[in-house]
Amino acid sequence: MKKALGRTLLALLVVALALLVFVSLREPSLSRIWDEDVSILAGVEISNDEAVTLTQIRDWNYAISSISSKKYFDASFDPKDIVAMWMYEQQLSTSGLIAHTFLVFEFDESYERGRYLGLSVETRREQGEEYSIIGGALRSFEITHIWATEQDLVTRRVQYLDYPLTRYRLEIPAEYRSRIFSKFARETQSLASVPRWYNTASNNCTSSLIKYVNESKPGAIPFHYSYAFTGKVDEYLEELGFKAADYSLQITRDFLASQELR
Fold first, then answer.
1. Which of 109, 115, 117, 255 is the most core-located residue (most Cβ within 10 A)?
2. Is residue 105 part of a domain?
3. Looking at residue 256, what is its pLDDT?
4. Which pLDDT score, from 0 to 100, does residue 213 have?
């Protein structure tokens, strides 16, 4: 009995080590057959005065469970013109521990179509692939940055996929907002030539934001379990004073049927 149990444990250990070796040897790629919504990478040009030109900003339109149009546009942004930052949270587990978060940079009215510019750090899925927490920890997905209009990112999840979202206002000083935007733009530029793996715990939608806040103001967001359990990051940011305590808005299909997003 003991010998049989020992052989079973040894076999499991060998399988686990083989899986670990396989995962560690996998290389990320820019050349796969991607799902359409993540197939086109935004282009980034940064001028000497730090102005950022983004190409292929996604601006799709969605109806209930369908995509009604697929458009992209180019626009230039001055990070100093950011007037506010917003965070959206999409719960992915009934426990409330896991969520997808994305940012919206609000510019002044002169930016028109690009006034509410969204950035979603996502897995770059191949055709037919579906996101999984375990897969995200085992190098199953490359990481990508989706620059899109707020309308696109919100209605994709709410109208098309029927996930409710909660919107929060972030309380981040103007100088840090500019730095965070610029750092994300530079990382997007890098990812276009040097692919990297997404990681559920250490390189996800939320940890990227935290990393750039800390690079802008060292130690601003100390290590916390919400780095990985992203569904709790809103509570942690509020505790630290980076999220407005007096504002949250739940956005559902019923909400969008009755009023505009903004």
1. 117
2. yes
3. 96
4. 86
